[in-house]
Amino acid sequence: MTWIAPEVDRDRAPVVADERSMLDAWLDFHRQTLLSKCTGLTAEQLRTASVEPSNMTLLGLVRHSAENERWWFRQQFAGLDLPYLYYTQEQRDRDFEDVAAADPEADLAIFHEEIELVRQTVAGRSLDETFVGTKGRDISLRWVYLHMIEEYARHNGHADLIRERIDGTTGE
């Protein structure tokens, strides 16, 4: 039996809420949007590049997003000493470059696990908490949320185009 990426329910972000609830909801909406672009596709389709010479695939976007979740929330904000998921010194774009033999089911599980671990990491933490970033500047948790929402929004546009190229499916 052929594995197929599962369906995803997308929750709409509220239009009236406190700041933290709104940021959490918009970030979840964009996470779910990326996953919805994968819904119903086979492993091979998820590994399909958009158009040459680009190596961007839906699976690569999922892997890249999991890496970014870990990097910004857990490694940078929380200061946890964790290994990278895909990145190596020799292959910095491995999240995109090494998908031909990747297991999409396992990579989607990693994505979901990373999101859950991020939720645990930021629970009860103030948006005003800061850490010193790699360039020596103070960065707030609020900035990380906004950056991740921006990151997903940009990549979800890529995902729209990749999905349309794969099977003609369009949508928001």
From TrEMBL:
<dbReference type="Pfam" id="PF04978">
    <property type="entry name" value="MST"/>
</dbReference>
<protein>
    <submittedName>
        <fullName>DinB family protein</fullName>
    </submittedName>
</protein>
<dbReference type="InterPro" id="IPR007061">
    <property type="entry name" value="MST-like"/>
</dbReference>
<dbReference type="InterPro" id="IPR034660">
    <property type="entry name" value="DinB/YfiT-like"/>
</dbReference>
